[in-house]
Design a protein that fits this description.
8% of the residues lie in helices and 56% in strands. It is mainly β and 340 residues long. The chain has one domain: Porin. Strands 1-3-4-6-7-10-11-12-13-14-15 form an eleven-stranded antiparallel beta barrel. It has a two-stranded antiparallel ribbon with strand order 8-9. The chain is elongated and about 65 Å long. The chain starts with a helix and ends with a strand.
Length: 340
């Protein structure tokens, strides 16, 4: 609590100096950005390009809550799932710590790396009425990405995203269950086990009173992993609008559309189909439309000068799941960024 109070006091002191941001802008030079909405909502990755020689470090913490099963758009009770399976998942919590860095070797290329640490907890119910919980606490897949500027003028900017995901996360994590120690089903693993291509395109626009943008990213899995399955291919699209209220705070709204495929065939560890739906590779696909709101804070001066803090939270307004599959209730992400 003492550390939180001290941090809050430092942040408040920095905000009191925001009226002097024009002076800081001149001292910093033209390569730094000074609007709180110069960056997209914190849930968007690879959204901006830096000037030559700039670095940026970042940290994001994300939480997602999933509860209840769905098949298509229809919600299912636990008993409905247990009519076809011996065990059903009932809810799941996922926490992710994402560490990132960006560097611009030229004005038109920025390189980015990210490394996540992921914690998952899933509750289950058996047909005999017994409940149990499985957990995972592992590193995720390491990602590298290049951002290549296509054009830029006073009000518009666009760049290509092209990245690779490296199989650093486990695909055979285990935990104890009523049946003993078992390899956990697909949603509880933190890696894909394959090298994955991540192509995309990002656009940013701004005026004196507004900023806006859009991004589409794909994830394409290359081959099968050592457990002889292939995780979902994905397409993620986001579009956002932000309003800078002062030179240190902006608010945003974002629509995100996610599509992901079923898994490829699992030749090694799928139990018989009646066991649990999370072990079925053909019950992993889905589509989700999310609405999210966010706040971006830019500290112009003081002990936290040139640091950025942000939060974004939201929930799906529509989900179609190839299920039974746990549906998402809500999600939140908070983050910190520092360019130098």
């Amino acid at each position: 609590m003492r550390h939180f109070s001290a941090a809050l006091a430092l942040l408040s002191l920095s905000f009191l100096t925001w009226t002097e941001a024009g002076t800081a802008r001149a001292e910093a030079g033209p390569s730094f950005q000074f609007r709180p909405d110069d960056h997209a909502p914190i849930g968007v990755m690879g959204d901006h390009i830096h000037k030559k020689g700039e670095w940026m470090l970042s940290y994001r913490f994300a939480y997602m809550r999933m509860k209840g099963n769905r098949d298509g758009t229809r919600r299912l009770s636990n008993q409905e799932v247990l009519q076809d399976f011996m065990v059903t998942p009932t809810d799941m919590d996922m926490y992710m710590h994402m560490f990132g860095a960006m560097y611009a070797p030229t004005d038109w290329v920025t390189v980015m790396i990210t490394l996540p640490w992921i914690q998952k907890s899933m509750d289950h119910l058996t047909g005999m009425g017994q409940g149990f919980t499985t957990t995972t606490n592992e590193i995720g897949d390491f990602k590298t990405m290049g951002l290549f500027r296509l054009f830029e003028n006073e009000h518009h900017e666009a760049h290509l995203n092209f990245g690779m995901s490296w199989p650093t996360g486990p695909i055979l994590a285990t935990d104890e269950t009523p049946a003993g120690s078992v390899v956990l089903p697909f949603p509880m693993q933190t890696g894909s086990g394959t090298f994955d291509m991540i192509p995309g395109l990002t656009y940013n626009g701004k005026s004196d009173r507004l900023s806006w943008g859009a991004q589409v990213l794909g994830t394409y899995r290359i081959g099968q992993n050592t457990a002889d399955y292939t995780a979902s291919d994905r397409v993620d699209f986001s579009s956002w609008l932000a309003v800078p209220w002062t030179n240190w705070i902006s608010t945003s709204g974002r629509v995100a559309v996610h599509w992901w495929s079923d898994y490829g065939g699992d030749q090694v560890r799928a139990p018989p189909p009646p066991t649990i739906p999370t072990a079925r590779p053909d019950l992993r696909g889905g589509t989700s439309i999310d609405l999210l709101g966010g706040v971006n804070l830019y500290v112009p001066l003081g002990p936290l000068g040139r640091h950025r803090f942000a939060i974004e939270a939201g929930a799906p307004v529509e989900q179609w799941l190839d299920g039974p599959q746990l549906e998402t209730d809500w999600k939140v992400i908070v983050g910190w960024q520092k360019a130098f």
